[in-house]
Design brief:
This protein is 50% helix and 3% strand.
Length: 206
């Protein structure tokens, strides 16, 4: 029997944001279309890699307890204390319900032996909550995974990354793609970094 939390109803629309947003206004709008895969990889490494790594290090090493890490992951709180732009438009009540549900099921999350396993747990627990979509499931699992030393080995797809995958000529109807399906220039990035890149640079890849 599933021990997922019950779905809740909130007045605002479900998650619709599709792209990773960080940093200054130019970053939030996404870079201008550029010179293809190699240019996107180089630009990502220069402008986004270190910042994304620091964000996950906060959940993995800086926060003092698993409970605090899971709580802040569910509430989408950055080290600054502000909500991550991906989750700006999600009702506060939906994030609070996600927090409650994940904390109640912390032993289940700790038993995960891979990121895929952890992602499935998080999806089962919070996806039924009104306002929570696939991007928030992935982001939350990624933050919690950083705490437990579990990172993705496949590139998970959501609205933004599907656009990037399609631009590369890949079948984007699947929940995830394997790293060895990617262009050679991308294969030295981690699966997490490729997910980030596909979302930010989808306009570069067509």
């Amino acid at each position: 029997m599933s021990d997922r939390c019950g779905a809740q109803s909130f007045s605002l629309q479900s998650e619709t944001r599709s792209c990773r947003s960080r940093g200054n206004e130019q970053d939030r709008c996404g870079p201008e279309p550029g010179g293809g895969v190699e240019a996107a990889v180089d630009h990502y490494i220069e402008h986004h890699r270190a910042r994304a790594a620091r964000e996950l290090e906060y959940f993995g090493r800086v926060l003092r307890s698993d409970e605090e890490a899971v709580e802040r992951a569910a509430l989408a709180l950055l080290p600054s204390g502000k909500r991550h732009p991906h989750q700006y438009h999600i009702p506060r009540g939906a994030l609070e319900e996600s927090r409650r549900c994940l904390l109640e099921n912390l032993p289940r999350l700790r038993r995960a032996t891979s990121f895929d396993d952890l992602y499935d747990h998080v999806d089962d627990l919070i996806r039924p909550i009104s306002g929570i979509g696939e991007l928030t499931v992935y982001d939350t699992a990624l933050r919690i995974g950083a705490r437990f030393g579990l990172g993705p080995t496949r590139v998970y797809l959501h609205a933004g990354t599907r656009e990037g995958a399609r631009a590369l000529g890949l079948d984007a109807r699947r929940p995830a793609i394997e790293v060895d399906e990617l262009p050679v220039a991308m294969r030295h990035l981690s699966a997490r970094e490729v997910e980030d890149l596909l979302c930010i640079y989808k306009s570069w890849l067509g």
